[in-house]
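Troubleshooting: if your tokenizer reports a length mismatch, compare your output against this known-good record of 459 residues.
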Amino acid sequence: MSMRSIAVILFVLGMVNVHAQQNIPNGDFEDWGFTTTQQLAKWMVVGNVSVSNDAHEGSKAIRLENDADEETPGFITTGAFAGDKLMGIPYNEQPLSVRFWSKFDLALGDQAQVACLFYFKGNAIGVQSTLIEGNSADTFQYFSLPITWQVSTNPDSVAIVISSKDLENDTYNGDGYMIVDDFHFASISTRNKEVPNGNFESWTDVKHPHLNSWFTTDEYLRILYGSQLPTPFVKETTDGRSGTKGLELTNQRLGDDIIAGIAFTGVDFESVTDPAFPIDNKWKYLEGYYKYTPSGGDSVYVAATLFSDGIDIGRAVFNTSDMASKYTYFSVEIDYYRSGTPDSASVFVASANAEEPRGETSKLIIDDLQFSDHNASVFDISHNKLTVYPNPFTDHIRFSGIDQMLGATYTLVDMLGNTVATGELTRNLNIDLSESLPGVYVLHLNGKHVNTSKILLKE
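Known-good structure output:
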């Protein structure tokens, strides 16, 4: 699943408290820890790859898995890619076969792949590529695969790929795994020069910073690619507002895509649309403090979703493209579009529209997120009188209590961020939305005496 598709799901999530006690877990971003993963030495690792204690030789082996739902395989290689070409590691012998032990259980129709390319001065002179399918009945099978040499010259390097899926096929029929151990080259009965860590015994513990009670872009990408990215999207900053720490989120380019820095309450990606923490009050506002440096037309995106018995009943969204070089207060009213008292909530924060980030350097620093029953904003008097009705609506929406807001700009967007309607607030304004699809919409109001958002539901 791409980060762009993730963002559509993330769009609906939510937020925190600071005037009273903290009511969003770690909403002051003071609580950081570390997660530790084991990293395979001497190999580049991508996707679902882990150490296996189910080994044929020694105490460890490599386990590669297909996750059909996430559409990610396990993949290891001895070298990095330069464009479409897989680079190798130094190797100067001419073995006759590739040998290893493997235990596997792949979905019907799925195939794992083991491939080697031997190079001399950048040209491929030897190759071995094998597809593996089915299952090994929970036993290790021995593979001895002949290498095809095009010339008799010894190579100067070799590129090795071991993958839990066929590299030419992007589809998955189901989950599956492959365990590989004792990978080596041989000539008849003689082992050739060893592949570095070809027995998969060497692993190192790697510590990754972790924002407790939250899940981030970096954690998702680390699961997806199997290693820590050089520069984090989400990190701790000592530029805190009320404590010693705050949360910094930054857009970055990753391959051909620009990815936003994202953090949401939860423990993993699977919990992204679920209630994340309990609450015991029907809070009125979502508030906090932020600094923002946009690029490429990006906007801050902060959202809260409140639930009752697992059903979403209210949301609050804060969205602005204005630069803020100093900590700036924001407060948005929580719109309850279904009856009931919330018992849980979720929180989502991003350095840009997660579905379509535009700038490579947009940066958000945020602190002291909370739910509140009062609003310290200068807009409190104005937007407390504002009513948008009916809500839920069917064809039209109207406004009352807007005398102090006349001339302000309104923008209505759908849950993908697409603008549905925009204009200025006028007396007796009646917005025709009969052509819009049923669903949840966000109404943004911006002017001299108002800066707020409201959630509307079309039935």
